[in-house]
Design a protein that fits this description.
The protein is mainly α. Helices cover about 55% and strands about 5% of the residues. The chain has one domain: Lysozyme. The protein contains 15 helices and five strands. The strands form two sheets. Strands 2-4-3 form a three-stranded antiparallel sheet, with no helix packed on it. Strands 1-5 form a two-stranded parallel ribbon. α6 packs across α11 and α9 crosses α14. It is elongated and about 140 Å long.
Length: about 375
């Protein structure tokens, strides 16, 4: 048999005669399909490589943000538990409440001494009659939670001659209670104004000037607002009364009667009273004041600024952050550096607070003498 070779054109014509349609193969479509497959493969590979390249950074971001927020929350809860137990606090931020500018710290305190006064020291019987005439009794105060703004500048000299301890304690508390609440009210108004300023996007010149003044009063360095918020706060009434009672023997000490010093604050410069039992080479004195009000303000400024009471302020801030009451029995745990006796001093403060039911006076309000003060009731 002889094999005959057919040309492509002849085969095409033969098929067309038989009714078949011959189409030409489109090589461009095959080429485009190959390009698309190559493009998708390359893109997918690049995506996978990029994902694994960025994976460590994603993990680090998660640790530093989402996980760290939980860690901060846990530390906050831990700090509150430590406060409630009176234990030392974890200082998460060592830069807050650090440093102290002493230059203007007590400027407003000693301005009282520059003011002319015609202060007269009333005797104990006259004061008692004044309280009786104005219907001022601790029993009524505990019941109504209101105290009248009766301000005395000096303690009566007869304090140490009052034999009844109950009578002596009641008289002492009634004298200093309005003074302590008045100073707390002043701080409350300042604190309210501070938060009002912080909530504004833009502050006026007067507001900025006021802030500068408060930075000086609280010895705040670098105009740090976080430090100012921690320092600008009240001292619980019961704690202040307990410390005044301890430091003055319920108003009978020489420092209280001669120098209106209710809290036994020391000074190494300026006027003061030298303790009788101090060594000859001792340079410290007990600060003296012209009126009792100065002593109360100096005491509050001391607790609110001195480095020895930083943990006290941090504990107070923890209670504030957790919307809890400023409990004097808790906060007193952080005043062991106030006296040389340390923990024994704290123990005595707690005994004074408990035995005299002083916490009942913590929520007492001062009968307002102005519309501004009325908002605090």
């Amino acid at each position: 048999m002889i094999k005959k070779k057919f040309k492509l054109e002849e085969v095409k014509k033969f098929l067309q005669k038989k009714g078949f349609t011959v189409l030409k193969k489109n090589n461009s479509k095959i080429f485009n399909k190959d390009i698309r497959s190559f493009y998708l493969t390359t893109l997918s590979s690049f995506g996978i490589i990029l994902f694994f390249f960025l994976l460590p950074a994603i993990v680090d971001f998660q640790k530093n943000t989402l996980l760290s927020s939980k860690e901060i929350e846990n530390k906050s809860k831990t700090n509150l538990e430590r406060v409630l137990k009176g234990q030392p606090l974890n200082k998460n931020n060592n830069e807050v409440d650090e440093g102290l500018d002493l230059k203007n710290l007590f400027e407003d305190v000693f301005k009282f001494d520059e003011l002319p006064t015609d202060t007269v020291r009333l005797n104990a019987s006259t004061i008692e009659q004044l309280f009786k005439d104005t219907d001022y009794s601790l029993k009524k105060v505990r019941k109504t939670k209101i105290v009248k703004p009766i301000t005395l500048s000096l303690l009566p000299e007869e304090m140490k001659m009052i034999e009844s301890s109950t009578k002596k304690k009641n008289l002492f508390i009634k004298i200093i209670l309005p003074l302590i609440i008045e100073e707390n009210n002043r701080i409350k108004l300042d604190r309210r104004k501070l938060f009002s300023i912080l909530n504004k996007n833009k502050n006026s010149k007067n507001e900025k000037k006021w802030l500068d003044q408060k930075f000086k009063q609280y010895g705040v360095l670098n105009k740090d607002l976080s430090t100012l918020k921690i320092r600008m706060d009240v001292i619980p009434v019961s704690l202040a009364i307990a410390q005044a009672a301890k430091e003055t023997g319920w108003g009978t000490s020489r420092f209280a009667l001669e120098g209106n010093a209710l809290f036994g604050q020391w000074t190494w410069s300026g006027e003061g009273i030298k303790p009788a039992g101090a060594d000859n080479d001792a340079t410290h004195k007990v600060m003296k004041f012209k009126i009792l009000k100065s002593s109360v303000r100096a005491y509050q400024r001391n607790l609110n600024t001195h480095s020895s009471y930083k943990e006290f302020r941090l504990a107070r801030a923890e209670l504030r952050d957790n919307k809890m009451k400023l409990d004097s029995l808790i906060l007193s745990n952080y005043l062991d550096k106030y006296a040389e006796t340390g923990k024994e001093y704290v123990k005595i403060l707690k005994q004074i607070i408990k035995q005299n039911n002083l916490t009942e006076l913590d929520d007492v309000k001062l009968l307002p003498s102005s519309k501004k003060l009325k908002s605090l009731i």
